[in-house]
Amino acid sequence: MNRTNQFFDKIFQNFDKVSDTEKKKVFQRLSTLWYSQNIIIENLEEGIIAIDNEGMIQGINKKACFLFSIPRNSEGESLSKCIPDNDIGKTILELVNSSDSETKLLKDNENERILQINILPIGERGRIIGTLIKAFDITKTYESAQKLKRAEQLASLTTLAAGVAHEIKNPLGSISIYVQLIDKIIKKNMDNDCQCYKDFKEYSDIIKEEIGRLEDTINSFLFSVRKLELNIEDVNINELILSTISFLKYEIEKNNVSIDIKFDKDNLILKLDERYIKQALINIIQNAIDAMNENKDDKKKEIYIKLKTIDNYAVISIKDTGTGIKDEDLNKIFEPYFTTKRHGTGLGLTNVVRIIEAHNGNITIESEYEKGSEFIIKLPLKQENQKFLNTDLLDYA
Ligand SMILES: Nc1ncnc2c1ncn2[C@@H]1O[C@H](COP(=O)(O)OP(=O)(O)O)[C@@H](O)[C@H]1O
Ligand SMILES: [Mg+2]
């Protein structure tokens, strides 16, 4: 019992002996207390309803009216009449009637809310005189906890997948060596009359193609979860673009693609990791080639590469005359595993973004469906005082 209760108890015990002035004082004290407590209860973030043993509402605050859609000024009314006849309303009445002290999570699907409900008996001098219902909207906390849980699950799944991918690499390497040995035998026997060697050749080509595809998938996956360890050096970006094109020369020629390069700046030196930026450019150019191979008409396959500087950035634009990207897919293309290709990994652009962002740059895209796409990479001209990001998902080797 607190001091205020003790004080009132004393007054009640000696009520007849207390003077009118004293009674007035007590009344004043009571009303001040009642007002201040009312303000506190009314403004609580928690919804509060107090009912008596007959289920009549003795007190209800603003938040409870809001959370349970109970009309204001419902004091004196029966809770079962005021609370809506929906799932939440029914559950609250059941909880109150079960008369156990309980904490429950309720999903309010109508209002997309998660409520934490506490049912507590109200006691007075050892008697239960009613029930207190407390409701707290924990939607945000609940959702972030769920998100965290999902992220943790995803991280452990990714670690597991990375381990499996790593394990696949070694036997795949052996299979590849043995197929090459078989290939040698086939080649030696190609003049043989037996048709079987021609068939073997066809089968071994298929096996090699499938091995290549598996290796690509595993390498992109492992790259996407590995730590990016940048080796930053002064790099001539003009030369890097040219060497990337020459690296892809075979693919470019095989697919009848012409490349149009326009450098607004010569010998532009940037601080970057040559290997990674080259890989990002290769991914974008390979996507451009794929997109142009998918064209239904025989539009000219052309890739325009431009290099210029804007403010403090080097801007590299890579534009193609491919299929373009549907509006609804534009937000998805940088997401891991999003692919529209039969044999795509959906990890190419995820890796490009990681690489560019690790260099404190950014990448944007402009695309018109059935016309073509333009990827615009911005890399800072000066990196001296900047920290390079470490955008690793996993610390996996
Ligand atoms: N230049 C482009 N033109 C049209 N679509 C593109 C282009 N680049 C990427 N995309 C779209 O983005 C998707 C994801 O690309 P990416 O992450 O490299 O994975 P993948 O190439 O394995 O599909 C592609 O499947 C394609 O739908
Ligand atoms: Mg790709």
Automatic annotation (TrEMBL):
Enzymatic class: transferase
Q: What's one GO MF term for it? A: ATP binding
Q: Which InterPro entries match?
A: HATPase_C_sf, HATPase_dom, His_kinase_dom, HisK_dim/P_dom, HisK_dim/P_sf, PAS-like_dom_sf, Sig_transdc_His_kin-like_C
Q: Give EC number(s), comma-separated.
A: 2.7.13.3
Which reaction is recorded as catalysed by this protein?
A: ATP + protein L-histidine = ADP + protein N-phospho-L-histidine
Positions of the Histidine kinase domain: 163-383
UniProt-recorded name of the protein = histidine kinase
Q: What keyword terms does UniProt attach to this protein?
A: ATP-binding, Kinase, Nucleotide-binding, Phosphoprotein, Transferase, Two-component regulatory system
SUPFAM superfamilies from the entry? ATPase domain of HSP90 chaperone/DNA topoisomerase II/histidine kinase (SSF55874), Homodimeric domain of signal transducing histidine kinase (SSF47384), PYP-like sensor domain (PAS domain) (SSF55785)
Q: Which residues cross the membrane?
A: none
Query: Which ranges form a coiled coil?
Result: none
Q: Which organism is it from?
A: Brachyspira innocens
